[in-house]
Structures are given as structure tokens and as C-alpha cells.
Write a structure and sequence with these properties.
This protein is of the alpha+beta class and about 325 residues long. It has 2 domains: about 130 residues, Alpha-D-Glucose-1,6-Bisphosphate, Chain A, domain 4, CATH 3.30.530.20; about 150 residues, Multidrug-efflux Transporter 1 Regulator Bmrr, Chain A (Alpha-Beta Barrel). It is about 35% helix and about 35% strand. An 8-stranded antiparallel β-sheet has the order 8-13-15-14-10-11-9-12. A 7-stranded antiparallel β-sheet has the order 1-7-6-5-4-3-2. A hairpin with a 2-residue loop joins strand 6 and strand 7. Helix 2 packs across helix 3. The longest helix has 26 residues. It is elongated and about 115 Å long.
Length: about 325
């Protein structure tokens, strides 16, 4: 009987010793992601609350501090104390806590590595140590899953920018245009008057209009709104009066579509600009609206459909 107890004691001692050998006093958990997302976008996604809300499920702000929390498969994640390049991340489960951070390094054009690492101080109690190791493996699986969801954003501009942004080609090579300066944001009636001036010119010169009217409104002073309107036509004509003719540079366009009035349009325009800046694109011309809806006929601006284009290369 004594031999059996001694043998069992030795087995238990060896098992506990193996726990200390296999599971170190400091358990490090890390995951990395190689992505083509641009640096400025990665920085927003990793360090800003609006970025966290883009790729982390149901994240909410803490009641007493500036941290943000969400729960995933019984693990509680807390993002806090963000800097320009990193955010502190705490992962917890009942009785266990891991502390670490998520950051990134730029390796070249369109090559960025996201690094996420957590550290758990292992208990001297072998049973607790084993449970901590299991917790570490659960944490690592969820870290990988969340980084994969971050990487998938490259395929969904709607999730990042709020709009379906596509890269298309310039179709209309010849434009007739005119401009005017107003002391306030131009009404649909004022814009339509400019469009009618161009339509009359096209009709007089026997030119066919090939697409919707194009519009750019830029505030160039405290009470100064420079308004440019253009119509794509099927041939080069000799314009007269205040009408001019231009050939479009045949290149790429950022394109999205929005429904709503000036506020909705300006918001979408701002996101196209952000997309252009994130991907370090250069624009050879000003962005513009393609007015799909006849705004003079449709008085309810919430029903306006507008395509927005930004020439880039």
C-alpha cells in the first residue's frame, strides 16, 4: 500500500514538474497580419474609436473611463490608451487576465504588418497554470479571428468608408461647361439655369448629350461658392459666350453613389477624398457630381440620386 502511495506521489510530482517545464512563468501570446491596407487606414483602425467600431463586433465605451469593450466567445476585450501607432489591449475571462497591445510596422509600399501580443503572468499553482494556458490558447484563436476580419476589410470599402467605392474608367472625353460664383450655396434652380445654358449650346451646335449633368461646388471664400457645371457631348464643338469646352484626361475615376441632399453628397465626397489620401492617389482634376435625378423636378432632396466621381491616377 505504501509503495502504491509513493508511486502515485511520484507520478503527481512528475506531472506537476512537467507543467512548470511546459508552461513558462510568463505566457506570451501573439498573432501577426500581413496586409496591403495603407498605413493611414491601419492607424485609424487600430488606434481610433471610430476605427475600432469598424472591425470589432459590438464595441462600446466604458462607463467610467476612456476604454472600449466588447465580448467574444466568453472573452472580454478592452481597448484603451491609444497612441498614434498602438493601442493597449486587455483580454480577460473569469479569474484570468492578459495584458498587451496591438500596433503596426510599415515594410514598404502596400505592405504593413499588424502585430498583436498579450502576456499572462502564470500562477505558481499548477492547476491554475494549466487553466491559464487554456485561456491563452482561447485568446490566441480569437486574436487570429479578429485580425482575419480586419484583413477582410480590404474587400469591403462600405465597411471602412461607409460607401461602395469603385475604381472605374473615364468614359466621357468631351465636355462643355460653364461656371458662376454665388454668395451662398446655390439652389437647385440656380444650378438648373446653368445646365439649361449648356443644353441650349449643345442643341445649337447639333451635339448630343451623352450622360447626366456634372456639378462641382467649391466654397472659395466666406460668402463665395464657385459653381462649375458640365455636360458630356458626343463631339468637339466651338462654344460661344460663357461656355467653354474641355477634353477629359482618359484615366481612372473613384466612383460611388449616394441618395440624399447636399449634406449626404458632401459626406460621400469627403469619404472619397479620404480614400484617395489613404491610397496616396493623385488627382488631375476636381471631383464632381453626376446628377442622375432632375433636382428641379424632384423637390424632395432626400430622393436625389447622385453619382460622385473623383479623377485619380
Amino acid at each position: 500500500m505504501k509503495k502504491a502511495i509513493l508511486f502515485l506521489s511520484i507520478i503527481i510530482l512528475l506531472a506537476f514538474s512537467l507543467v512548470y517545464l511546459v508552461i513558462p512563468s510568463r505566457i506570451d501570446v501573439s498573432e501577426t497580419l500581413e496586409t496591403s491596407l495603407p498605413e493611414t487606414l491601419i492607424a485609424r483602425l487600430l488606434t481610433e474609436k471610430t476605427g475600432w467600431q469598424t472591425w470589432l463586433p459590438s464595441i462600446t465605451r466604458g462607463a467610467k473611463d476612456n476604454s472600449y469593450h466588447f465580448k467574444k466567445n466568453e472573452l472580454d476585450f478592452t481597448f484603451s490608451e491609444n497612441t498614434e501607432t498602438a493601442a493597449n489591449v486587455q483580454v480577460s475571462q473569469t479569474g484570468f487576465t492578459a495584458n498587451g497591445k496591438i500596433d503596426y510596422i510599415v515594410k514598404g509600399a502596400h505592405r504593413t504588418t499588424v502585430r498583436w501580443y498579450e502576456m499572462i503572468k502564470a500562477s505558481k499553482n499548477p492547476i491554475t497554470r494549466i487553466r491559464q494556458f487554456i485561456f491563452a490558447m482561447q485568446t490566441r484563436r480569437q486574436m487570429k479571428h479578429l485580425l482575419d476580419s480586419l484583413n477582410n476589410l480590404t474587400q469591403h470599402s462600405t465597411k471602412v468608408y461607409g460607401y461602395n467605392i469603385r475604381i472605374t474608367k473615364v468614359k466621357d472625353s468631351v465636355l462643355i461647361g460653364t461656371r458662376a460664383i454665388f454668395s451662398s450655396y446655390p439652389s437647385a434652380e440656380k444650378v438648373d439655369a446653368l445646365v439649361r445654358k449648356l443644353k441650349d449650346q449643345a442643341k445649337m451646335k447639333n451635339a448630343l448629350i451623352t450622360d447626366s449633368p456634372m456639378l462641382n461646388i467649391t466654397q472659395t471664400g466666406q460668402k463665395e461658392f464657385t459653381t462649375m457645371v458640365a455636360l458630356p457631348v458626343n463631339k468637339f464643338i466651338q462654344p460661344s459666350g460663357e461656355v467653354y469646352i474641355r477634353r477629359m484626361v482618359m484615366g481612372n475615376l473613384l466612383e460611388t453613389q449616394v441618395k440624399g441632399g447636399p449634406n449626404s453628397i458632401n459626406k460621400a465626397m469627403a469619404q472619397l477624398t479620404l480614400f484617395k489620401e489613404d491610397y496616396k492617389m493623385i488627382s488631375p482634376a476636381v471631383p464632381y457630381q453626376s446628377m442622375i435625378t432632375n433636382r428641379l423636378a424632384e423637390k424632395d432632396s432626400s430622393k436625389w440620386v447622385t453619382k460622385i466621381y473623383y479623377p485619380v491616377f
